[in-house]
Amino acid sequence: MSTTALRSPWTVWGVGLAVYVLAVFHRSSLGVAGLVATDRFGISAAQLATFTMLQLLVYAGMQIPVGLLVDRFGSRSVMLSGLVLMTVGQTVFAFAESYPLALVARAGVGMGDAMTFICLLRLVSSWFPLRRIPFVTQVTGTLGQTGAVAAAVPMTWALANLGWTRAYLVAGGVGIVLAVALLVVLHDTPAGRNLRGAPMSLASVRASLAASWRHPGTRLGFWMHFCTQFSATTMSLLWGYPFFVRGEEQSSAAAGLLLTLMVVTMMFSGPVLGWLVSVHPWHRSTVVLVIVSSIVAVWTVVLAWPGPAPFAVLVVLVLVTGVGGPASVIGFDVGRTSNPAHRLASATGIINQGGFYASLVMVVVIGLVLDWRTPGASTAYTPEAFRWAMSAQFPLWLLGLVQVWRYRGRARARVLQDREASLTG
Ligand SMILES: N[C@@H](Cc1c[nH]cn1)C(=O)NCC(=O)O
Q1: If you placed Cys at 28, which of 87, 145, 148, 194 could pair as Cys (CB 3.0 to 4.6 Å)?
Q2: Cα(372) to centroid of ligand 1, in Å?
Q3: 3 state SS of 270
Q4: How does this protein sit in the membrane (predicted)?
Q5: Structurally, what CATH architecture does the domain formed by 1-187 represent?
């Protein structure tokens, strides 16, 4: 391959995307290993859920530091560090036989995962022309979800046929191949291998974060991300399967089908949304408000249905909820157009916390409400308990919708103000 082909936007993006797919794979790889994990570590369902909570906490908590690191050291260095962390974490997880060591390993995987998406979005904005960025960003988020698909069927097969250690070792080993590809292909910008920002001091970090957060566009992006994706994330990472099986009395096969359908919806709706927001950038918040209102409406129908909702209604639920995943990416686009290039990654980090903190809150609250509504110490959760637990999503949607409404007005006023200043200045 010639140097030009090696360094075309699409090859650079392709390698970055492969790392992101691997990150999503690692993130989701415990989903199908739950039962094996409870046997291997001798743990309860609550301890198993701790893996998911820890992962979300580490991921969300790392977003601002990672954003700052990307602005300072560039995507290439940070993504490589993330890849090393994920590979080491997954290797330790492969050999771990105790619960505390497994938790430490998952925290490592979570940290590495947190270092991937922000780097990739930074690469997209450096390598692609402006008009293509919203579409490529959506396609990036969309294709990343193939990692979740790969974590379902192939990982189930690998666990059954290769056993725990070898299955996780193979998954970790892919990281070594990708690290070589990253070192050879990935440059931070068309002009150079490494992009280095200004050195950081505590004062400059504080000033840069404050400047990003002060911009109403960053806050709008944060609240968009907050209210669009948490329902789909909570369902796919932990509670979707038990909700369909115990709450809606579906078979395990039907529950698996519904969750797969949700991922497929994310993959198909992403490019459509990318096209829509690149054609109508002024209406990005309207698109988000319509999508979140539709998610709220369909959940209301399902939860208000007397008895289990019909399968067709649950299909509509996963289709509409699934669109929330790619809709969250609109928040990054608003962040990008509201911030200068030198603090783009840290603004992306702020925005990316929204949906993951909301998901973390939901994962915990749903578990607590299920325990509260179920007699004794039993985990035989009833449909009634699930109705209560899933209703806990409404306050978060309400908060998100109100905030999106508030900040869209402010963000629009700021755009008009900046435009006027540039015309008169
Ligand atoms: N909401 C996701 C991206 C997405 C796109 N389609 C479905 N989900 C997001 O915020 N991604 C960040 C990450 O690290 O995955």
Answers
A1: 148
A2: 31
A3: helix
A4: Multi-pass membrane protein
A5: Up-down Bundle (1.20)
Residue-wise pLDDT for 202-255, tens only, equals: 898 899 899 999 999 999 999 999 999 999 999 988 888 889 988 999 998 898
Integer Cα distance of 253 and 425 in angstroms = 63
Report the nearest-CA residue for atom 7 of ligand 1: 325
Radius of gyration of the chain (CA): 21
Tokens 């209604």 — which residue?
313
Pick the CATH number of 207-419 from 3.40.30.10, 3.40.50.300, 3.40.50.1110, 1.20.1250.20: 1.20.1250.20
For a pocket test of ligand 1, which of 229, 318, 336 has the largest count of ligand atoms closer than 8 A to its C-beta? 229
pTM equals 0.89
* Closest CA relative to residue 125, chosen from 369, 347, 404, 310: 347
Q: CA-CA-CA-CA torsion for 126, 128, 131, 132, nearest 10 degrees?
A: -130
- The finding on whether 322 has its CB within 6 A of some atom of ligand 1 is no
Say how many Å lie between the CA of residue 325 and the centre of ligand 1.
6
ipTM above 0.90, yes or no: yes
Distance in Å, CA 40 to ligand 1 centroid: 30
Which ranges in the chain are annotated with CATH 1.20.1250.20?
A: 1-187, 207-419
329 lines ligand 1 (CB under 6 A): yes
